[in-house]
Specification:
Helix content of chain A: 10-25%
Shape of chain B: extended
Distance between the termini of chain B: 78 Å
Number of helices of chain B: 11
CATH class of one domain in chain B: Mainly Alpha
CATH topology of one domain in chain B: Cytochrome Bc1 Complex, Chain C
CATH superfamily of the largest domain in chain A: Rieske [2Fe-2S] iron-sulphur domain
Shape of chain A: elongated
CATH superfamily of one domain in chain B: Cytochrome Bc1 Complex, Chain C
Oligomer: heterodimer
Structural class of chain B: mainly alpha
Largest interface: A-B, 32 and 29 residues
Order of helices and strands of chain A: HEEEEEEEEEEEH
Largest sheet of chain B: none
Number of strands of chain A: 11
Strand content of chain A: 15-25%
Helix content of chain B: 55-70%
CATH architecture of the largest domain in chain A: 3-layer Sandwich
Largest sheet of chain A: 7 strands, antiparallel
Number of helices of chain A: 2
Radius of gyration of chain A: 31 Å
Number of strands of chain B: 0
CATH topology of the largest domain in chain A: Rieske Iron-sulfur Protein
């Protein structure tokens, strides 16, 4: 009976000379065949990476690119009352025509209704018409004093808080400021059910409780720091 | 010394037989000559590529007893894809993937171009037909047990093809760029964003930014007409290779054909 030699006990040959490769040089540790194979694979890898990485980088870059802040004049302060909304058209994205425009509802801050802390950005309240269920356009219905979504029946109260239906959080808002007697509308921000400001989230993403961590803020859009 | 005569000039030598005479045909009319040219051309290619062996392997396979019309659903799906590819190329000749011009370019194709509405309609309804065929084909495979060993990998590839087909439907839906397609895509992207942790980033990737922007439409267009069709074509190739290699299954109601004496031995 012959016992198979235990491979672990055998010392691994260190040089090509020891492993009896024909034509081995003295002290050579990598055979020329192995070296060649490795070189060819590395060269192929570099060539593939040279066109793949830039392409992937270009496709993914918008995720990390910060949008520039943009303020738009929507009218003189006298245009807006504190007991009802006035619609205005806002250009969210420039250069794509009507597609980049959206309706925004504006009113003056009303201390008898609004409980959030006043600062330079909410003397006028600008409510986004993007439904927080899946992004359909809501409209303000004067008769019921509510925002209503045509797609899946989301209903929001006068402040934009969810009254009923599938929406997961109150309507988004925009920063506003007053410059030279005009109201200007700035970047978007999202609010939780207590109307606290958060960096903008897409529709369908709750931000109460752990929601704000499950649906993290993106590098491309942030709320104004310190607000 | 037998061979002292000079060789015959080329023109006087007897002509070699054409392929048709080799095969025992005696006709020598112009029709036969034409057929010979065809056979010679195919032979020329085959001698250099051995393609005929592959073609025979792919096409002249044995199929099990009981093979029926349900087995054509896979080919039907493939032809639906080919139809989408051809009509898609035509649409691409007229389509302008810019947010301000897309709708107008499709309106022009539909209303002004000869057969434009027909080809666009083929592409539109064909996409629905393809999705339906994919599901019917999947149902056939499931209910006939054709996903079992050794065909599991082909089932997996089929599921990848299903997902790619649905991605095609999703990216294609935006392209007409009317109210319906814009809002449907808005909703679709929002649904995509509800995926925990990665959803928000995937949305930014899909839209090329936090809002529907300048390059969103062209991004969908590039995915729809370059990336996804390429992936689908490659996957169909793998799918067909495995079908040819593993063969098809008999329907579950077919009994194995066991010779009488073997059956007696078993008992």
């Amino acid at each position: 009976m012959s016992v198979a030699p235990d491979r672990k006990q055998q010392r691994k040959p260190k040089t090509t000379e020891e492993s009896r490769i024909p034509g081995a040089f003295e002290g050579e540790t990598v055979s020329r065949r192995r070296f060649m194979t490795g070189t060819v694979h590395a060269a192929g890898g570099i060539a593939a990476a040279a066109f793949t990485l830039p392409a992937v980088g270009l496709a993914v870059a918008p995720v990390f690119e910060k949008e520039e802040e943009h303020w738009e004049v929507v009218g003189p302060t006298a245009d807006f009352s504190d007991d009802t909304y006035t619609p205005r058209t806002l250009t969210l994205v420039r250069g794509i025509g009507d597609v980049g425009k959206s309706t925004v509802y504006l009113r003056k801050y009303n201390p008898t209704i609004d409980s959030e802390e006043r600062d330079e950005y909410n003397e006028y309240i600008a409510i986004s018409t993007r439904c927080m269920h899946l992004g359909c356009p809501v409209r303000f219905v004067e008769a019921s004093q509510r925002f209503i979504c045509p797609c899946h029946g989301g209903v929001y109260d006068f402040q934009g808080k969810v009254n009923g239906g599938p929406p997961v959080r109150p309507l988004d808002r925009f920063y506003t400021r007053v410059r030279n007697g005009n109201v200007e509308v700035g970047p978007r921000f999202s609010v939780n059910s207590e109307l606290r400001r958060f960096s903008p989230r897409d529709p369908g993403q709750p931000i109460d409780g752990i929601g704000q961590y499950v649906y993290p803020a993106r590098p491309s859009v942030r709320k104004i720091p310190g607000t | 010394m037998a061979n002292l005569k000079p060789p015959l000039p080329r023109a006087l030598r007897p002509k070699p037989k054409g392929p048709s005479e080799d095969n025992g045909h005696t006709e020598t009319g112009p029709k036969q000559k034409l057929a010979d040219v065809g056979v010679s051309a195919v032979d020329w290619v085959d001698e250099r590529t051995s393609l005929s062996a592959g073609a025979r392997w792919l096409m002249f396979r044995k199929v099990p007893k009981g093979t029926n019309w349900f087995y054509t659903l896979g080919s039907a799906t493939m032809f639906a894809f080919l139809s989408q590819a051809v009509t898609g190329v035509i649409l691409a000749m007229y389509y302008d993937p810019s947010a301000t011009r897309a709708y107008e370019s499709m309106r022009y194709l539909t209303n002004e171009v000869f057969l434009g509405e027909f080809v666009r309609g083929m592409h539109k309804w064909g996409s629905t037909v393809m999705v339906i065929l994919v599901f019917l084909h999947m149902g056939r495979t499931f209910f006939f047990g054709a996903y079992k060993y050794p065909r599991e990998l082909n089932w997996v590839i089929g599921v990848v093809l299903l997902i790619l087909t649905l991605f095609m439907s999703f990216t294609g839906y935006l392209l007409p760029f009317d109210q319906r397609s814009f809002w449907a895509t808005t909703v679709g992207v929002a649904i995509n964003g509800t995926g925990p942790l990665v959803g928000p980033y995937l949305n930014d990737f899909l839209r090329a930014g936090p809002e529907f922007g300048v390059t969103t439409l062209s991004r969908f267009y590039a995915l729809h007409m370059l990336v996804l069709p390429g992936a689908i074509a490659a996957m169909i190739g793998a799918h067909l290779y495995l079908v040819a290699r593993l063969g098809t299954t008999a329907p579950p109601w077919m009994k194995a054909d066991i010779p009488a004496d073997v059956r007696k031995d078993d008992a």
